[in-house]
Design brief:
- The complex is a heterodimer.
- By secondary structure, chain A is mainly alpha-helical.
- Chain A is built from 16 helices and three strands.
- Chain A is globular, with a radius of gyration of 22 Å.
- Chain A starts with a helix and ends in a 5-residue tail after the last helix.
- Chain B is built from 20 helices and 24 strands.
- Chain B folds into two domains: 204 residues, Penicillin-binding protein 2a (Domain 2); 389 residues, DD-peptidase/beta-lactamase superfamily (Beta-lactamase, 3-Layer(aba) Sandwich).
- In chain B, the strands form seven sheets. In chain B, strands 2, 3, 4, 5, 10, 18 and 19 form a seven-stranded mixed beta sheet that branches. In chain B, strands 12-11-23-22-21-24 form a six-stranded antiparallel beta sheet, with helices on both faces. A three-stranded antiparallel beta sheet of chain B has the order 1-8-9.
- The chains are: A mainly alpha, B alpha+beta.
């Protein structure tokens, strides 16, 4: 009786306390997602494309996960994080050995007509395990051993993901690691060294890119054979260097081939102008200029911006701002360090994906395969995103320790 | 619980995250504003360029007609079965599309029994690159396949019957070497991908262009101006909407000087031989007939020649594709004597009364030149020597007058130069002079032996049948050398004249009319009671000169060297005001008189019959349906031997020159089918 009343009170409190803004933003984004995946995939004279139905199904599943995660105490979740981590780790190894190769990368494990992408789950697992590990050591991160363990926990899955290869996801994990180390109070000296390393690394990549440009000139002038491959010192593939060139020197690229996707993305976005062409009227994306293999996932923003214009883009950023600022607010108001790390981590993960994806579509960043949260087609990432948002909700709802 | 309490938190670090987010979103907002508001116009114009496609609309090609309006080359509809990939209802599912295409192709193949030229790869490439264009699977249906197709129509959506104009040569091989054929363009235009105005993938089907004959030389005239159809791909990306359309301007018709009936007479008479025949109108240089045998059927090239057919044509030892009338060159043999005689008369060193004795051979130093009459002709004057084609008389003539008069007279007739007839790969023959010999070898000189040899048309001298027809015509019209005229005019499809090609005077012969007349009369004697008796017709007087140039051939099987004869006859008729001048050569014959005489006779007989109003030309009922072996050449013939040289009948060595010039052969494989079917 008492327990029942307690439960009822809990739910009352919960409904009152729930961050509805976040949920509303999520539902709006989902609507956008379905509308524009439809726009990117539908063909005249046909019904609703399979992709839209599947995405809808994932959203439904994801919402279940979202509410479930909201109700669970995030502390308990983080204590059990190692289970998820171990499972993801096994899947990552499995996918490298037996995964289905699509477009030259082994990223998927397929069941019937569904495919899951373990690398997406790895983002969540690494986030949780790092929160669990760092949450206990917050403010005491002076010893190098803790830093090393935390780094290992993140870097090993990142390397596995890089092997698939999946550069975008592989980069997101170290970024997350540094953010969490920062939030957990790692020393300024550590970040000083880190900044130095980053500077060095970007210098190296810049030098490599410059050398690659010289090499391309020689190759097109037939000083070296036309079949010659660039001998990269950093072991970067030519297509990866091409993506850097696509941002720093787009004219170096062959517009019909290497620079095609990004060029079509820019045409789509740019020609959307202020108010867009209207839903279903994006000539570039629906005409197939932006290849159908990328328009519904990595380049969904191009589809969106072409048809809804600058106005739509601002609305989209506003929706994302709701999620991000609400997440940051939860982090500030969290009941403990763990909650702060978790909410901050999830918020940063969202920010990273939004920034890299849209930045890439706008031609501000190199093309890396990073999906746009709650917009891109893809079940695994939808599940991860919604569960992660649920965890923010959980941090909020459970901010007062009992 | 060992989690740190909230008091130990470091909020400034979260505020830094906050700042990061604000900055990031601001960057994205500015980026969006830059791309969409600042650059929006540029990108919109770029989009307009990339979502419209220019499709070339091929212009109907002009026809080729003979002088009487007989259509020698026409267009006919070709029925093609094409697939419209976007109408297969497979959506963007490529596998489903492939399955459906495969099924349709299979069923159609069973019904029509025509070989399939597409596979999954072709369909896939087409889908990706040329989506809105129909993918032609079967070209030019046979009547049976056409019937089979119609029987079961309508077919599933996406299967479409399309009509495309293609070339037809209604008389099959008739004048094939003059008319030529079409093929797929080479080089950039032939690249598998097409490009539109901004260098992007575009949808324009390549247009066949002329590859030989008038089809090639008059290609620009025949082709017309292609139209343009600008197509916008609608939001579905596949079905098309037309933005603008410029209709093509059809090509103009070319009217030839050929007389199809005379051409037909010549080709009929000459079936089974290797050789050439050219008939000119001596009054203006019009080419009335220009035949090379064996011939081939240019309909084989419609819509595109099959590889097997091409290989058969290209490797045929009889070389049916070679235009022997203009591209091959031969020793003129004794037909040259008319030029030698005229040169002799003009020098004054030889007169009508000059007599040389013919003992059957002529000695120069330690070299002996033989006469074809081993026993000798006895005493001969010029008229008798021409009539009997006595070599020894002309050896003496050549020895007496030397090289320069021979060169000059030959030059006046146009030997050693291209006539300028608008046909591809014309050869100019070879007129040997001292200069030319020195150019070949600085220590070489023109010897009296060379003059002796040249006077009977042997040695390095080589001519094309067309050049010899010009020689015959110049005697026929009493001394005017015309450039052969093959194209009379260009007309619009409605028959309005666009360009007229006047008859082209080249030069007068540098000879007195009496001397020319003397040789004309001697040529009359050749037919009346000389070596050309077999050409004689009862009512019409023909003037002619025979020639039999020996050359050596190594038999491929035995390795023996055989002596063979190029049999020549140049002639004009009717005497004294000829309307026809003819040069005929057979690559292998007994002699000019024996082999070519009867041909000349038959051809003239029939020509004068049609002048009386009898029509000869019958349109073959179904040229295209003829079996391949018949289509290639008129008749099966034995493989020819390897030609070593046209060695003169003396011991004087001559360079191996009697080879058809290699440039005459088509340089490369011409035609994969137009528009792909790859």
């Amino acid at each position: 009786m008492i327990r029942r009343r307690k439960t009822r009170e809990f739910f009352h409190e919960l409904l009152a306390d729930f961050r509805w803004g976040q949920l509303i933003a999520v539902l709006c984004l989902m609507t956008f997602s379905l509308l524009f995946i439809y726009s990117a995939t539908v063909r005249s004279g046909e019904g609703v494309p399979d992709e839209v139905k599947k995405q809808g199904l994932w959203f439904a599943l994801g919402l279940v996960g979202y509410f479930f995660a909201s109700l669970l105490d995030y502390r308990w979740v983080c204590r059990k994080a190692w289970l998820l981590y171990a499972g993801t780790f096994a899947l990552l190894i499995w996918v490298l050995l037996k995964g289905k190769k699509i477009y030259g990368a082994r990223r998927w494990i397929t069941f019937e007509s569904f495919a899951i992408q373990p690398s997406e789950f790895a983002k969540l697992s690494v986030l949780l395990i790092l929160c669990w590990y760092l949450g206990r050591r917050a403010g005491k991160l002076r010893d190098w051993r803790s830093l090393a363990v935390a780094s290992l926990l993140a870097i090993v899955p990142a390397v596995l993901i890089h092997r698939q290869p999946d550069l975008g996801t592989a980069i997101s994990i170290p970024a997350l690691l540094f953010l969490l180390l920062f939030l957990a109070g790692a020393s300024a000296r550590f970040f000083g060294i880190l900044a130095l390393v980053a500077l060095l690394a970007s210098g190296l990549v810049g030098w490599e890119t410059w050398r690659y440009t010289q090499f391309r000139h020689e190759r097109s002038a037939r000083v070296v054979s036309a079949e010659a491959r660039y001998p990269s010192i950093l072991h970067l593939k030519e297509y990866q260097l091409n993506r850097i060139l696509g941002v720093v020197a787009p004219d170096e690229l062959d517009q019909l081939n290497e620079g095609w996707n990004i060029r079509q993305s820019l045409i789509a976005i740019g020609s959307g102008r202020f108010s867009g062409k209207g839903w279903g009227k994006g000539d570039v994306t629906r005409g197939g200029y932006l290849p159908r293999t990328v328009s519904l996932n990595d380049f969904i923003f191009a589809v969106f911006a072409e048809e809804s214009g600058f106005v739509g883009g601002v609305a989209l950023l506003a929706l994302y701002s709701v999620l991000l600022f609400s997440g940051a607010r939860v982090a500030i108001r969290a009941g403990d360090t763990l909650g702060m790390l978790l909410a901050g981590g999830v918020t940063f993960l969202f920010f990273f994906h939004i920034f890299v994806n849209i930045g890439m579509a706008l031609g501000l960043l190199p093309v890396v395969g990073v999906p746009l949260p709650l917009m891109s087609y893809g079940g695994s990432f939808v599940l991860v995103c919604l569960t992660a948002l649920g965890l923010i909700q959980s941090v909020w709802l459970h901010r007062n320790p009992y | 619980m060992s989690f740190s309490s909230s008091g130990e938190r470091t909020p400034w670090r979260i505020f830094l995250l906050f700042l990061l987010i604000v900055t990031g979103l601001a960057v994205l907002l500015i980026g969006m504003a830059f791309r969409q508001l600042v650059q929006g116009e540029d990108w919109t114009s770029q989009m307009a360029q990339s979502s419209t496609r220019v499709m070339r609309l091929p212009a109907p090609r002009g026809r080729i007609l003979d002088r009487n309006g007989v259509v020698l080359v026409d267009n006919r509809p070709s029925y093609n079965v094409a697939l419209l990939l976007d109408e297969f209802g497979a959506g963007r599912n490529r596998e489903r599309l492939l399955r459906r295409v495969r099924a349709s192709v299979e069923v159609l193949h069973k019904r029509m029994k025509m070989p399939v030229n597409v596979n999954d790869r072709v369909v896939r490439i087409h889908y990706d690159r040329r989506g809105p264009l129909p993918l032609t699977v079967w070209n030019d249906l046979s009547p049976a396949a056409f019937a089979a197709f119609l029987e079961r129509s309508p077919w599933t959506p996406g299967v479409d019957l399309q009509i495309e104009p293609v070339r037809v040569y209604p008389y099959g091989p008739l004048a094939c070497h003059v008319l030529g054929y079409l093929g797929k363009p080479e080089g950039r235009a032939a690249a598998e991908e097409d490009y539109d105005t901004i260098g992007r993938r575009a949808f324009s089907q390549p247009v066949a262009i002329g590859k030989a004959g008038i089809e090639e030389t008059m290609d620009k005239v025949l082709q017309g101006t292609p139209g343009q159809r600008v197509v916008r791909l609608d939001a579905a990306g596949f079905t098309e909407a037309e933005v603008s359309r410029v209709e093509p301007t059809p090509g103009n018709d070319v009217v030839l000087s050929l007389d199809a009936e005379i051409q037909a007479i010549v080709e009929e008479s000459f079936v089974g031989y290797r050789g050439a025949c050219v008939i000119l109108d001596p009054r203006n240089g019009d080419v009335l007939a220009l035949a090379s045998m064996p011939s081939y059927n240019p309909n084989l090239f419609v819509p595109a020649i099959r590889r097997a057919d091409w290989n058969a044509l290209a490797s045929d030892p009889q070389r049916p594709m070679l235009n022997r009338a203009t591209q091959a060159y031969y020793s003129p043999g004794s037909t040259f004597k008319v030029i030698g005689a005229l040169a002799g008369l003009e020098t004054g060193l030889i007169t009508e009364k000059t007599v040389f004795q013919c003992p059957g051979s002529f000695s120069l130093g330690n070299i002996t030149f033989a006469c074809w009459e081993k026993g000798g002709h006895g005493d001969m004057n010029l008229r008798e020597a021409l009539t009997m084609s006595c070599n020894v008389f002309f050896y003496n003539l050549g020895f007496r007058i030397g090289g320069p008069p021979l060169w000059a007279m030959s030059h006046a007739f146009g030997l050693g130069e291209k006539t300028g007839v608008p046909l591809d790969g014309e050869s100019g023959g070879l007129l040997p002079t001292e200069e030319l010999k020195r150019a070949r070898n600085p220590r070489d000189r023109w010897t009296p032996g060379d003059s002796v040899n040249m006077s009977i048309g042997q040695g390095l001298l080589n001519v094309t049948p067309l050049q010899m027809a010009v020689v015959a015509a110049a005697f026929g019209n009493q001394g005017t050398v015309f450039r052969p005229r093959l194209v009379l005019r260009v007309e619009t499809p409605n028959g309005n004249e666009v360009v007229k090609f006047p008859s082209e005077f080249r030069n007068r012969l540098p000879a007195s009319p009496e001397h020319i007349q003397f040789i004309r009369e001697a040529m009359l004697n050749v037919v009346a009671d000389g070596t050309g008796k077999r050409a004689a017709l009862p009512k019409i007087k023909i003037a002619a000169k025979t020639g039999s140039a020996q050359f050596h051939v190594r038999d491929r099987l035995t390795g023996e060297t055989l002596q063979k004869t190029r049999a020549w006859m140049i002639s004009f008729a009717p005497w004294p005001e000829p309307r026809y001048a003819m040069a005929l050569v057979a690559e292998e014959g007994i002699s000019g008189g024996t082999t070519i005489g009867p041909f000349t006779q038959e051809i003239y007989k029939k020509i004068f019959e049609i002048e009386q109003g009898r029509r000869m030309l019958v349109r073959p009922p179904s040229v295209a349906a003829m079996p391949v072996s018949d289509r290639l050449t008129g008749k099966e013939g034995e493989a020819s031997g390897e030609i070593l040289s046209d060695t003169p009948p003396s011991a004087l060595p001559a360079a191996p020159v009697d080879e058809a010039s290699d440039e005459a052969a088509p340089a490369s494989f011409p035609a994969e089918p137009v528009g792909g079917r790859r």
